[in-house]
Amino acid sequence: MTYGEDEARELMELLEEVPDPRCARGVRYPFSHLLLMCIYAVLAGHSAAMEIAYYAELNFDYFQKLLKMEKVPSHDTFSRVLRYADFEALSSSLGEWLKGSFPEVYEKYQDRKALHIDGKAVRGASEKSKGENPIYHLNAMYEGGAVGVEIKRVGEKENEISCLPDYLKQFDLRGTIVTMDAMGCNQTVIKAIRKGGGNYVLPVKENQKNLWGTIHGEIEKLEKGKTWDRPDRTELLQKKHGRIEKVVFRMLSDTSFIYEKLGLKSFYGTIARIGVMDKTTETKKDGEEVKTKSRSIFITDLEDITAEMMQKIRAAHWNIEMQHWVLDIQLKEDQQTARKDDAVTNGSILRRFCMALKKQDPELSAKPMKRFLMANEHDPNRIEKLLFKNVAQEEARF
């Protein structure tokens, strides 16, 4: 089967490109078939090796017909698949299939996409009694989509900041606004974003002492004068769960004070605008009103950004935290205990693939994840329709 440049490649062909790490002697099942059964199981809510084997056993008649298999693979077989599969190749294959099979729908800001990046721990995959730290992955999602299958595992002797430049290379950053938490507010990461052709919107925290202090000094000076309410600003008032939250977002367009006090060293010379978010929250505690205030600072190299636009971008960044909640609570990622070799990372890729495919489900995309998993668990033919555009053609290839 051959494909034109604009034609989507079929899933099985892409899975066949994932290297088989096994010794050829004694191999009973094609590696791509084992990966496919793992995908089916994860789409039905089962991502541990024992669960995958049991799922394959319960649906043996279906897989026997689809894959011409004679025996159900053992849980040890699926365990080895998860441990030894090349997670970069698996991520690449599944990512290519998703991009080729479904239209890319992004929320845009002045023709720019927004890419939100965050780190996530898999806490169950570590032995606390032995002093092991949780395994961390870097994840990303384009605004308007689900968490992508492109992830990077943070090594034991690495940190998120040192891994970010390589991770960013996986994405075409041209025409893209990159957001992340304070880990991105440093010269190494900002240089990588701009080198890739992207722009950034990043928070400034107190550990950035020089920058933090300089910006706050300027704000204090503006507050004492009559110009504080003159900058570009937007307000948002929300009432929910007995709480009133007011957000005032101001944009400072004159950043010359940074250069005057800090010079053009580091990334200071790229800062074009500064966003200041003041949040006031009113709640009731023991019958009395309690008011709390907080202030957040954001920097960007975008010169045409407005206060409203930056406020929306930063609010949207927290969607990735919501997707992490789905991974932990509904797909039970934080409970996964398989820690040997690359089992954690391959499992994470498959769960993210599940999330991405749910978003494309014509029937259940707007329904809870649990309903999507239950519908798939009770009908493998439903999964078949999601994965294969032309089932008869795919069966002929097996």
Summarize the SSE layout with pairings.
Layout: H1 11-15, H2 31-43, H3 49-58, H4 60-67, H5 75-84, H6 87-101, E1 108-109, E2 112-122, E3 135-142, E4 152-154, H7 160-168, E5 176-179, H8 187-195, E6 199-204, H9 209-224, E7 232-240, E8 243-252, H10 256-262, E9 273-285, E10 288-300, H11 307-317, H12 319-330, H13 343-359, H14 369-377, H15 380-387, H16 391-397
Helix pairs in contact: 2-3, 2-13, 3-5, 5-13, 6-13, 7-8, 9-10
Quickly describe the structure.
The chain has 16 helices and 10 strands.
Describe this structure in words.
- The chain is of the alpha+beta class and 398 residues long.
- Among the domains are: 11-104 and 337-397, no CATH class; 205-304, N-terminal domain of TfIIb, CATH 2.20.25.110.
- It is 42% helix and 20% strand.
- It is built from 16 helices and ten strands.
- The chain has helices at 11-15, 31-43, 49-58, 60-67, 75-84, 87-101, 160-168, 187-195, 209-224, 256-262, 307-317, 319-330, 343-359, 369-377, 380-387, 391-397, and strands spanning 108-109, 112-122, 135-142, 152-154, 176-179, 199-204, 232-240, 243-252, 273-285, 288-300.
- Strands 1, 2, 3, 4, 5, 6, 7, 8, 9 and 10 form a ten-stranded mixed beta sheet that branches.
- Helix 8 links the parallel strand 5 and strand 6.
- The radius of gyration is 24 Å and the shape is elongated.
- Helix percent band: 40-55%
What is the overall shape? Answer: elongated
Secondary structure category? alpha+beta
Summarize the main sheet.
Answer: 10 strands, mixed
Task: Quote the beta fraction.
Answer: 15-25%
Q: Termini separation (Å)? A: 13 Å
Low-confidence stretches: 1-7, 390-398
Q: How large, in whole angstroms, is the Cα Rg?
A: 24 Å
* Helix/strand order: HHHHHHEEEEHEHEHEEHEEHHHHHH
**Tally of extended strands?**
10
Q: What count of helical segments does DSSP give?
A: 16
Average pLDDT number: 88
